[in-house]
Amino acid sequence: MPDMDEFLEMFFVECDELLDSLATGLRAMEAPDHEKETVHSVFRAVHSMKGAAAAFGLSDLVTFAHRFETVLDLLRSDKLTADEEVMTVLHRSSDLLTDLVTAARQSSAADPVRLEELLGDLDRLIGDEGDDAEDDALAMEFTPLTLDFSPLAGEPAITTYKIVMMPDPEMYRTGNDPAALIHALSQLGDATVTLNATNVPKLSVWSQDDTRLSWEIKLATTAPVTDIHQIFEFVVDCCQLDIHELSDVVAQPAPADSLAEPELPAPGEPVSDLAPSDVEATSKAATPVEAGASKAGQTTGQAATIRVSLDRVDKLMNMIGELVIKEAMLYQVIETAGFTEDPDVVTALEGIRQLAGDIQESVMSIRAQPLKLVFQRMHRILREAADATGKKVRLDTLGENTEVDKTMIERLIDPLTHMIRNSIDHGLEDAVTRQRRGKPQEGTITLSAAHRSGRVQIEVSDDGGGIDRERVRRIAEERGLIPQGATLSSNEIDSLLFLPGFSSKDEVSALSGRGVGLDVVRREIMALGGRVMIQSKEGEGTTFSIALPLTLAVLEGMLIQLRDQTMVLPITAVQETLRPTSATLHGIGKNGRVLSNRGELIPIIDLACSFGLRDAPAPLDDGVLIVVETDSHKRAALHVDGIFDQRQVVIKSLEENYGRVPGVSAATILGDGKIALIIDPEEIVLSSLSEQGRSAMAFAANG
Amino acid sequence: MLETMSHNSAGKKDVVAFKLAEQDFCIDISLVREIRGWAPATVLPHAPSYVKGVINLRGSVVTVVDLSARLGFGPSQPSQRHVVIIAFHEGRIVGLLADLVSDIVTINDENIQAVPDIASDPSREFITGMITFDDGRILRKIDLAQLLPAPQLVSA
Amino acid sequence: MTARILAVDDSPTIRGLVADVLRKAGFEVFLASDGVEGVGTLTDANPDLIITDINMPKMDGFGLIETVRATGSYSSIPILVLTTESSAELKTRARNAGATGWIVKPFDDERLIAVIDRVLGR
Fold it and tell me: Angle at which helices A518-527 and A406-422 pack, to 10 degrees?
């Protein structure tokens, strides 16, 4: 091995680190209340050194590390207590291990007397406990792992074996592919493979994990039978296997029972070597499936799934997005040409639209994955956050098999991580407070997911103290996000948490850290076409709910005109649209204007101004008012120059190639190929609570 | 390995040369994806003045930077004769608005000179080198990294 | 087509050695230093086979195997355990978690490749 030196050098560098963490860990073990993880990490350090040392044949190091590791294993499984005597031996062993590494580095040997002496000490600690296991493990470790080449002198004889293999469900579950094994067999010699599907039950009771397929392989080979067994080394415990030598089949006169070994098994007849008890009564009727049972080469035909690279699915997905856009373009052309009255054209167009939707849905289902992968990660996030805050927390997860788009899975990790940290850091009270409130010391965070009326609902809830609304109001006032003494409902106060600039760097704890606020969480969710809501009850806890669309990347939107720009307003936020009349409009001060609608006074926001497209609000006698309601149930009337359509738009990320734009959640491409920005009504409304809000928005744009 | 692939031969590389306010500039051809005619962009609210907006590049949303404004020549009034150089830089696609693309030139590394110290012209920080030609022409080599707005990452 | 292998081991030395052997045998190799990172690498690597150590910080090999087996599109990837122990108990635990097979460290280069080829049906 030419570059072994390079790896040896790498090994010594690794050893330095491991020895360092070993020494640190042993010191930490001196403390009476040390964590169990400390022992684990000490064990791992020694274990890793042993593993790597073995690769270089450093036998002194391996032997000693192994004995050392055995003692640590006893400590780790509480079979030994780390008393003073034990700790002394451990420290000395750590030192010797350091010496052994140094010796290996200098290609010399460490003090053999000390080595023997400490090995003895370690042995004494091991006592009767690990004796047998240890010798066993050592013996195994040094078993040479070369293949058995035992060829006979002279011309190797060809032997024919009959191999019958019927995989248990376990074999499929553990990723052992029958086709791979058959392929390996066929490389040993001349193989004839027969698939037996006789035992396959009816489709209604068939499962891909329990195919009940079996294979018979006749293999003519010069390889010893040990080679055949070697091929099945991983599956002997998870398939029914029968290997036996066929004496010269051709030469022998056919005995009566040879009829039991036909090339094609008779319908309904189980392969003779298999346990008949496994055959369900229904299998007798399963003849149709058998059509596939035939010669070699068809054996791989049983695959119920294929693996496709994600790139291809993504490409398909993009093309479907394009298709939706092209469909919109086509509609526009037809409309311009004045054909929309023709029923045939309308029907054909509707058909295309329907089809595009169906294709989109199908691809989405290919990309669907259970939320389990994200939820499982959260356990670790929770543990780390709990450690960092010193709070005791439990994570309950519900509905982790709920499926969402794969892209969402990845993009949910950051927001959920942040929300969980936030819940632990700000939601849960410290142990003392919890005790005073009569709550269990251990806080509970519940992470749940469910499909709800065409959306995926994910909730992060804690059983903490609820939002301290007075404090939130105070912070918002101090940061100039709301005017002093503004009248705000509880919901409105809660939604202040989502304002950019609410959490500031100086206030952030080490945990939630990095000056990242919940506004980022909301933006991330918005970018996925979703919404975030808060519910909080004083003393009882807070729940963050995320509602995500099932189909990523599509949104029902209202196309509006702002000066020469077209923008898209998500339809979910729109309550009603109306033409302003002087009777319903009222001024407040110089610039403030409200709409009186069915007895309710709703603030009017000039959207073009919010986006800096106009310096002063336009007169209200032109244009349209769109009443929107935010997730926090706050209403506002958006003044726009016009509304001209409502349609599905494909969400395109703006952040990928540019960055975030205040008041905008994403972009889309219209029928004419132009880009239109998708408005984030929540941010528009919240930031217009005050002039300061607007400057906060502008600040966020440049910050 | 990747580095060795981007240049075909040592010391030589191709650049795309373009004009801006009567001066000649260039960028490394390996960064350029395509060059297209100007079409009106969608305005981005609250964007820096040198960001013209976003355009649709076969389904991708691409930011267009007005090079003239960025280099301190003042904002350009783009017409159909203007071009957008689509460049790829550090995983992001960006469009560069220029007056016209004049040529694709092979340059030798030895012809690249450092930029002389000229006061504090705004263009100074974006130009990484000067390429001189025998006919007296000069190409100013632009550094894309300096030119683009800092990525505003949402997840920090 | 080049098969893609994700190797997960907390020891940089072992990672380096495994990667070296695999690359020389013509595989495309992806590396991760613990189970969590291994799971995180899945989407990028989209491996045809995973080789994992057992004793690792954060998420150990068993955890990695279980996670992969529970994840729809990756659930049938063969996973080989590379470990210094060869006890029956370890094999049982690995099997229960869903391991395809095991190789005992220190590994023999040729045998490692032979086992991989067999499991991949190459």
Answer: 160
For A663, name the nearest residue in chain B, comparing CA atoms only.
B45
What is the C-alpha to C-alpha distance for residues A590 and A608, in angstroms, rounded to an integer?
18
Q: How far apart are the first and last CA of chain B?
A: 31
User: What's the domain range around A626?
Assistant: 554-702
Residues of chain A in contact with residue B46, where contact means CB-CB under 8 angstroms, are: 611-612, 661-662, 697-698, 701-702
Chains that touch B (3 or more CB pairs under 8 A): A
Q: Please answer whether residues A474 and A467 qualify as being in contact, where contact means their C-beta atoms are separated by less than 8 angstroms.
A: no
Which residues are paired to B14 by β-bridges?
A: B106
H or E element at residue A643: strand A642-650
Placement of tokens 């039991």 in the chain: A260
Q: Quick check: B53 and B47 in contact, CB under 8 A?
A: yes
Q: How far is B7 from chain A (nearest CA, A)?
A: 26
Residues 6+ apart with CB under 8 A from A287: A267, A268
State the Cα–Cα distance between residues A69 and A138, nearest whole angstrom: 12
Crossing angle of helices A59-76 and A112-126, rounded to 10°: 30
Residues 25-44 on A with a CB inside 8 Å of C are 41, 43-44
Q: Please answer whether residues B45 and A612 qualify as being in contact, where contact means their C-beta atoms are separated by less than 8 angstroms.
A: yes
DSSP string, A312-372: HHHHHHHHHHHHHHHHHHHHHHHHHTT-TT-HHHHHHHHHHHHHHHHHHHHHHHHHEEETH
CA distances from A456 to A96, A402, A420, A452, A550 (A): 58, 8, 18, 6, 6
DSSP symbol at A423: I
Predicted pLDDT at A146: 41
Contact between B54 and A654 using a beta-carbon 8 Å cutoff: yes
Across chain B, mean pLDDT equals 78
Judge: A657–B94 Cβ closer than 8 Å, yes or no. Answer: yes
Cβ A674–B46 below 8 Å, yes or no?
no
Q: Are the beta carbons of C15 and C41 closer than 8 angstroms?
A: no
Of A14, A51, A145, which is closest to C108 when you measure between CB atoms? A145
pLDDT per residue as tens digits for the range A190-240:
888 888 877 776 666 666 666 678 888 888 888 888 888 888 888 888 888
pLDDT in tens, B11-63: 778 888 888 888 889 988 888 877 888 888 999 988 888 899 999 876 678 89
Write out the two tokens for A194. Answer: 């027969």
What's the mean pLDDT when you consider all of chain A?
A: 76
Query: Residue C104 forms beta bridges with which residues?
Result: C83
**Cα separation of A526 and A533, whole Å?**
12
pTM exceeds 0.90, yes or no: no
Asked if residue A560 is part of any domain, the answer here is: yes
Residues 6+ apart with CB under 8 A from A474: none
Residues of A within 8 A of B55 (CB-CB) are: 675
Give B111's DSSP letter: G
Phi, then psi, of A636 in degrees rounded to 5: -155, 155
Strand residues in C1-122 grouped as ranges (E): 4-8, 28-32, 49-52, 79-83, 101-104
Do A449 and A378 meet the contact criterion of CB atoms below 8 Å apart? no
Compare C40 and A579 and report the one with higher pLDDT. A579
Of the residues A98, A114, A141, which one is the last residue of a structural domain? A141
pLDDT band at A493; cut points 50, 70, 90: confident
Which one of 3.40.1080.10, 3.40.50.300, 3.40.50.2300, 2.60.40.1180 gives the CATH number of domain C4-120?
3.40.50.2300
What residues does A597 pair with on adjacent strands? A600
Find where tokens 């070699």 sit.
A296
Q: Where are the alpha helices (DSSP H) in A528-668?
A: 607-610
Q: What's the domain count of chain A?
A: 5
- The boundaries of the domain holding residue B124 are 12-144
